[in-house]
Amino acid sequence: MTSGKELQALPLASCLLPLAPSTEMTLSVLRWTLFACLIFCSPSISRAQSLELFAADRRQPAHELTANAGLRAASTSIGLVDAVVYEAGAVVRDETGSGVLVDRCLVLTARHVLGPPPGPGEERRIEVTWRPHLARRDAVSLGWTRRSARIVALGGGRGTRRTDLLDDWALIALDRPIKGIEPTPLDAHDCCAQSTTEPMALLGFPADHFERANPVPWVDPECRVSETLANGIVATSCQATSGNSGGPLLVLRAEGWRVAAVLTRANAPRIGGGVSGDENFAIPIDGFLRRVVARANLDASCGPWVAPGRS
Question: Taking 90 as the threshold, does the pLDDT of residue 186 lie above it?
């Protein structure tokens, strides 16, 4: 039997031997095999360290929040934002990220999720997709909900210019309201004091858990604001990766979960499945953004919101 010490000394090539191409080998199998290699073959990382890194991931699918019905219900307002640019009928760019329904037909997201403006001869189409039955037991029959959307306000535009990071927000209006999905309103308080004791959670579609055919929102239910930077951006302890951009940092108030900030920067996924809470940044909700949303809601027309169970 090979000892653990001998296993750590094995060359990486011997670990990768099982990775011969096979039509039956899935990406998941490759990922787990590589993770095992990092545990046993790398002299720079111990098995304990690797397992600790992997086990530290506290995120979970939103519909599995069995002990937190309020947060599970709030997760229905999280949508997958898809901005596709076409030229002559062919896809030129396809940008995806997260967004949150903050009013009956307004979705708040990050500006960079929408990508750069389309060039001459190009057309951009924006859609937002929800999977409400994953989080609402009374909405199983709804299945997929997809809406076309248009941009109604962008950070950095005329009258909204602040700084590059604080301007990374966008409001998009749906073509019609959504039956059965309640908005998560903006927090009435300015975010975010480090001394905040209320529970916080980050929701979105992280890249390392994303499946295009079955996009499911994930949640880190144990977030905290770790620092407010001089430029007004907040650093968080939330576990996030690319794909979470545009997703909301929620805070639990007496009246329910509210949008306290919107994620603007997150790290790329780590090889082997590890995720970091470092260097994730969010745009805090403040009086400026509340006024922007209120003004956009007056201008955006998509009909009255339809409550669950009503047609």
Answer: yes
